[in-house]
Specification:
The protein has about 130 residues and is mainly α. The protein contains 7 helices and 3 strands. The chain has a 3-stranded antiparallel beta sheet with strand order 1-3-2.
């Protein structure tokens, strides 16, 4: 993911209606929204986010789908490539968690002028 949005004076905290997106930031956001545009990936993200402790083993979420393990792994890879999930291998299993700052970016860009923006810690650091 590009760091352009972090270095241009806090653009990562600006709602879409207030200021035009940079080309890099638009590309990053489009990858995240595209990843969430698939119902399986959206459900995967939701299952992981709502799992006890905020992380889930692939073995815990696979049984929720009528899909093969390679297909689930592909969807998880797309979510990771979009910057929405982090993961760690522990023994033979891989554990996944949602990256909160990615969801904050998605929600912040969609705020309207009447909404109140709450910048993520990353945005606050970029503005300092």
């Amino acid at each position: 993911m590009s760091n352009q949005k972090l270095s241009d004076g806090g653009a990562c905290c600006s709602p879409l209606a207030r200021e035009p997106l940079t080309e890099d930031w638009a590309g990053d956001l489009a990858r995240m929204f595209k990843a969430l545009g698939d119902p399986v990936r959206l459900r995967l993200l939701s299952l992981i986010a709502s799992h006890a402790g905020g992380e889930a083993c692939v073995c815990d979420i696979s049984e929720s789908f009528d899909l093969s393990q390679p297909t689930i792994s592909h969807h998880l890879k797309v979510l990771r490539a979009a910057g929405l999930l982090g993961c760690e291998r522990r023994s033979t299993w891989v554990y996944y968690w949602v990256i909160p700052s990615a969801l904050q970016q998605l929600s912040a860009v969609l705020l309207t002028e009447s909404g109140t923006a709450v910048p993520s810690p990353t945005c606050a650091e970029a503005q300092a």
